[in-house]
Write a structure and sequence with these properties.
alpha+beta; 5-stranded antiparallel beta sheet; 5 strands; globular
Length: 120
């Protein structure tokens, strides 16, 4: 994959990064969380059963290579106090394409732009 093109949105005086890989856009969840008051981590968001359900539906619609068998295992554990998963684990286990986690210059966690109805 080629290097991403970085742009930003200004939302309530906070810059939110957007990385574009060709015509695929990913918005920075990390930047959004930095702007939020209080302590909240993406790994906490990923252990929420509603989040896992949403991500599974999104991947089923947009990703023909999504590993639904592994998703079923993750979904059965989501919401339990003992359960935690990182974005890299989620992507590795399910072959998800809607979330990206990276280190380095454009490091952070990014979510795919959800296509609008009628958009390819």
């Amino acid at each position: 994959m080629s290097k991403p093109k970085k742009t930003t949105l200004l939302v309530r005086n906070t810059e939110i990064a957007i990385l574009s890989y060709g015509d695929e856009d990913f918005i920075s969840l990390t930047d959004m969380l930095k702007a939020k008051d209080g302590e909240f981590f993406i790994s906490d968001w990923l252990r929420n059963r509603n989040t896992v359900e949403f991500l599974g539906i999104w991947e089923t619609v947009h990703n023909p290579n999504f590993n639904s068998g592994e998703f079923a295992i993750i979904r059965s554990r989501a919401g339990l106090n003992s359960y935690k998963i990182s974005v890299k684990e989620w992507v590795g286990k399910t072959r998800a394409v809607g979330l990206k986690a990276s280190a380095g210059r454009y490091g952070g966690t990014y979510a795919h732009k959800d296509p609008l109805k009628g958009e390819p």
